[in-house]
Amino acid sequence: MKKKVESTKVEKRKKEFSKVMAVIAVVMWVIVNIFGMAMVVFTMDTSPLAYVIPSVDAVVGAVLAFYMWKARAENQIKLKKIYNAEFQDEDSDII
């Protein structure tokens, strides 16, 4: 006798692209800052820090600002569906 195999479909949650990018940006920021501090200790030269660290900080800041803006918009949409209410800020043109 053959056993009946039940097919249970396990639903995998797909990772959000913006969340992956935010994590990659933060990891990159940590690596660059640690590498920059190590190179200052080993080479006794701080001139590369004037260019490398601020540029990485700017990229990470932009990525995180976008992610926060996107999460805010998604949360406003979810709250609107749950409570049937309008959430409008002075600076918000989402809803």
What's the quick description here?
The chain is mainly alpha-helical and 95 residues long. Helix content is 62%, strand content 0%.
Write out key terms for the chains shown.
95 residues; mainly alpha; 0% strand; elongated
Class computed from helices, strands and strand pairing: mainly alpha
Mean pLDDT: 82
Count of DSSP-assigned helices: 2
State the domain count. 1
Number of strands: 0
Radius of gyration: 23 Å
Order of helices and strands: HH
List low-confidence stretches.
Answer: none
Largest sheet: none
Globular, elongated, flat, extended or rod-shaped: what is the shape? elongated
- Helix amount, in percent? 55-70%
Compute the separation of the termini in Å: 60 Å
Strand proportion: under 5%
Question: How would you characterize the overall build of this protein?
Answer:
The protein has 95 residues and is mostly helical. It has one domain (17-83). The chain contains 2 helices and no strands. It has helices at residues 17-43, 52-83. The chain starts with 16 loop residues before the first helix and ends in a 12-residue tail after the last helix. The mean pLDDT is 82.
List the helices and strands and how they pair.
Blueprint: H1 17-43, H2 52-83
Helix pairs in contact: 1-2
